[in-house]
Design goal:
With 429 residues, the chain is an alpha/beta fold. 27% of the residues lie in helices and 27% in strands. The protein has helices spanning 2-15, 19-32, 71-74, 188-200, 235-250, 279-287, 292-299, 346-358, 378-386, 411-424, and strands spanning 36-37, 51-56, 60-65, 76-82, 87-98, 101-109, 122-132, 135-142, 176-179, 206-216, 221-223, 229-232, 256-262, 302-306, 309-310, 333-335, 364-366, 389-394, 396-398, 405-408. The strands form three sheets. A nine-stranded mixed β-sheet has the order 1-2-3-13-4-14-18-16-17, sandwiched between helices. Helix 5 crosses helix 10 (411-424). This is Probable M18 family aminopeptidase 2. Belongs to the peptidase M18 family. Keywords: Aminopeptidase, Hydrolase, Metal-binding, Metalloprotease, Protease, Zinc. It is an enzyme of class 3 (hydrolase).
Length: 429
């Protein structure tokens, strides 16, 4: 079971180089499991026991399994995660020709660790908007092959490299795509038009715009002398999206279950499809009873906000509170912050800990050092938007926000097991 889940995660990561592709991958898996797509621009007809999903901006998704037990009696079981990861996004007019090389200007998305982006085999993927036969259309593209690289400067020319230096995102990050001869021009939109033809058989009249990200082509893998780890890009937070999906598809019982995977968490969640936007509430209000009943349902519900946690690194153990150093392969982590950077309360933490104990899943706790700043998640944002009780949890990882992150190979099975139990739980506190 563990090996199957890990391979499934590796396949999901490969198919999901951008939030658009991650949402498409989730939607395809939901469709295969009998979930019906609902268009927000059309009337909806939902039935008890029905299974539905909604996407917005092609990059966020909400999946709902309506229980046969009225949600006004038992509430909802919600799991939240996010589809985006720190990366390098291509600028609107990106063409650079310097010293006979064709490069693309990029903008850093989110709080990326920049040094690991150097000397990697990069490809490009995302959404392209174009005019075709007089109409404006959009398609996802993925070059898949390594088409770019950001070479490091040789240490002979930067003797202080190993003493650390500030990376200039404007001048040092533009990837190299090709060499150009003489005054030969390079048109990025022509390249995208060719890719649309190659992938989709489309002949675009004009490429109008795009949202494209570079990504590392090296596949995720189970690594380590004893296969103890999973290394790969975008573990934060596609690992949680995948775990939530597996739990939803495996859930039994008559309860109403929701999986929400929002875009834009890494840049503050403030968008029409982000956790700080109206998407989740709007979807739920269209599927559930309104007015007084809706508020009662929310107050009987609970959200598990699943986002990766910081495992204690053996080389940097002093970056953790001595009593709160989560270990890889020791189970999911309950994240606590008294300043509400995490939305966990004693009640919600106690319930999640109870679920772990009942299902023989190891569980840990994380509190940031008191002299360090704390990150945040969609948990507090969704809690403030919906008024739903929330517990913030996640699997411990190393190298968070790097181009290649590391998690424990045993932990995914732990997380899927407890999230499945949560979805199937007949009683909430």
């Amino acid at each position: 079971m563990r090996e199957k889940l890990n391979q499934g995660l590796i396949d999901f990561l490969k198919a999901s180089p951008t939030p658009f592709h991650a949402t498409d991958s989730l939607a395809m898996r939901l469709e295969a499991a009998g979930y019906k797509h609902l268009d927000e621009r059309e009337p909806w007809v939902a039935e008890p026991g029905g299974r539905y999903y909604v996407t917005r901006n092609d990059s966020s998704i909400v999946a709902v399994k309506l229980g046969r037990r009225p949600p006004v009696e038992g509430g909802m079981r919600l799991i939240g995660a996010h589809t985006d990861s720190p990366c390098l996004r291509v600028k609107p007019q990106p063409e650079l020709q310097r010293q006979g090389f064709w490069q693309l200007g990029v903008e850093v998305y989110g709080g990326a660790l920049l040094a690991p982006w150097f000397d990697r085999d990069l490809s490009l993927a995302g959404r392209v908007t174009f005019r075709h036969a007089g109409k404006v259309e959009s398609q996802l593209i993925d070059f898949k092959n390594p088409i770019a690289i950001i070479p490091n400067l040789a240490i002979h020319l930067n003797r202080e490299a190993n003493q650390g230096w500030a990376i200039n995102a404007q001048t040092e990050l533009p990837p190299i795509l090709a060499q150009v001869v003489g005054d030969e021009g390079a048109d990025f939109r022509d390249l995208l038009a060719d890719q649309l033809t190659l992938e989709h058989g489309l002949s675009a009249d004009t490429v109008l715009d795009y949202e494209l990200s570079f990504y590392d082509t090296q596949s995720a893998a189970v690594i380590g002398l004893n296969g103890d780890f999973i290394a790969g890009a975008r573990l934060d937070n596609l690992l949680s999206c995948y775990a939530g999906l597996q739990a939803l598809l495996a859930a039994e019982g008559d309860e109403t279950c929701v999986l929400v995977c929002n875009d834009h968490e890494e840049v503050g969640s403030c968008s029409a499809c982000g956790a700080d936007g109206p998407m989740l509430e709007q979807v739920l209000r269209r599927l559930l009873p309104e007015c007084d009943a809706f508020t009662r349902i929310i107050q009987k519900s609970l959200l598990v906000s699943a986002d990766n946690a910081h495992g204690v690194h053996p080389n940097y153990a002093d970056k953790h509170d001595g009593n709160h150093g989560p270990k890889l392969n020791a189970g999911p982590v309950i994240k606590v912050n008294s300043n509400q950077r995490y939305a966990t309360s004693s009640e919600t933490a106690g319930f999640f800990r109870h679920l772990c104990l009942e299902n023989e899943v190891p569980v840990q706790s994380f509190v940031v050092r008191s002299d360090m700043a704390c990150g945040s998640t969609i948990g507090p944002i969704t809690a403030s938007q919906l008024g739903v009780r929330t517990v913030d949890i996640g699997l411990p990882t190393f190298a968070m926000h790097s181009i290649r992150e590391l998690a424990g190979s045993h932990d995914l099975a732990h997380l899927v097991k407890v999230l499945t139990a949560f979805y199937s739980c007949p009683d909430l506190p």
